[in-house]
Amino acid sequence: MWPRMQAWARRLRRDAHALFLAARDRRTPWPARLLALAIAAYALSPIDLIPDVIPVLGYLDEVILLPLAIALVVRLIPPALMVEHRAAAERAAARPRSRAGAVAIIALWLAALALLGWWLWPATPA
């Protein structure tokens, strides 16, 4: 059962990426593009509608709502386009990840947080 769940999760992640690609494709009908962009942004975002710290309900959106939303939007996109974007998402998942790029992005976020903290920190009177 565990391998089936892992395969399902990989397909869900691949389809979320494929929806993001379809949302950027001009051949996709505009209502499907809007929904695909919203669903892909939510699926790939670390922010959840229902926080994961809430027992049972926290995973409700990832287990039930998100797959249903992805399935709905996939039906709105022409099948030939979905095949193309799924293949592109598979290729992207197979590419090696750059640790240097990850370090650079983390460094940028830390620098932005430090700058924000410095800007918001109250100045001490002289």
Tell me the layout of helices and strands.
Blueprint (H helix, E strand, L loop, with lengths): L1 H22 L6 H15 L15 H17 L2 H16 L4 H22 L6
Helix pairs in contact: 1-2, 1-3, 1-4, 2-3
Keywords: Membrane, Transmembrane, Transmembrane helix
Protein name: DUF1232 domain-containing protein
Membrane topology: Multi-pass membrane protein
Descriptive report:
- The chain has 126 residues and is mainly alpha-helical.
- The protein has one domain (2-118).
- The chain is 73% helix and 0% strand.
- It contains five helices and no strands.
- α1 (2-23) packs across α2.
- It is globular.
- The termini are far apart.
- It is found in: Endomembrane system.
- Keywords: Membrane, Transmembrane, Transmembrane helix.
- It is a multi-pass membrane protein.
